[in-house]
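User: As part of a screening pipeline, I want to sanity-check one entry by hand. Below is the sequence and the SMILES for zinc ion. Please return the complex as structure tokens so I can compare it with the automated output.
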Amino acid sequence: MSVYAGTGEWELKKMIIEIGRRIWTRGYVAANDGNITVKINDKEILTTPTGISKGFMTQDMILKMTLDGDLITKSPKYKPSSEVKMHLEVYRQREDIGSVIHAHPPHCTGFAVAGIPLDQCVLPEAILTIGAVPIARYGTPSTREIPDSIKPFVQNSDAILLENHGALTFGADLVSAYHRMETLEHAAQIVFLAIQLGNVNLIPRDQVDKLMFLRDKYGMTGRVTACVTRPPQPAKEEPSRDVVEQITKKVMDRLKN
Ligand SMILES: [Zn+2]
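Assistant: Here is the complex for your manual check:
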């Protein structure tokens, strides 16, 4: 069942156009890159067109197709992206997903090019919403190679890096899928800065456990894979009263002399 079952298509197209505008404005895509889909019912999706900047779309450009990949909207001008195949793979595996977004944000794509997965526990927001983000192996765009490469990760994650290509995020609705793309890129940017500064401190395991407890308590949706932590920190010992007194006495003695 789609969360958009009762929403009009015109309204959904407006929402897709707005998210496309944000993706382009934030530099998550260049030229005509990227694509967005929304599941409108158990059989159909709306998709953005190929060959059009996602920052400048209008309602007539958004196309309807079946979850089997057959085009419903007959348009002489616009065609869906060949990359929609990976969106269909996500919908095929996950009934809970209502929207999928693909983009090439520079920082997280940099990690995908470097072959470094974003799988460390470094920021509470990222731990809660995207968890450990895997890298799906490189595939030739437009072929079955990309949908095949994401297959092993779709069940356990709502954000996947595509090796030497970009990122894919998904969620129960369009906004949650988009927010995961923002969180992914923001986390990648911060980790990149920390690496440049020379140190990446991981959040200790006991603290991550507390976050995951809160995630369950507040019923957060989506699926996250546990990220890499560091061992729990030993409790800091307060200096005893005797030690403080001894030090104070020594300092006072020195001052007298
Ligand atoms: Zn792409």
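Points to compare against the pipeline: The chain has a mean pLDDT of 93. Residues 9-197 form a domain with the L-fuculose-1-phosphate Aldolase fold (CATH 3.40.225.10).
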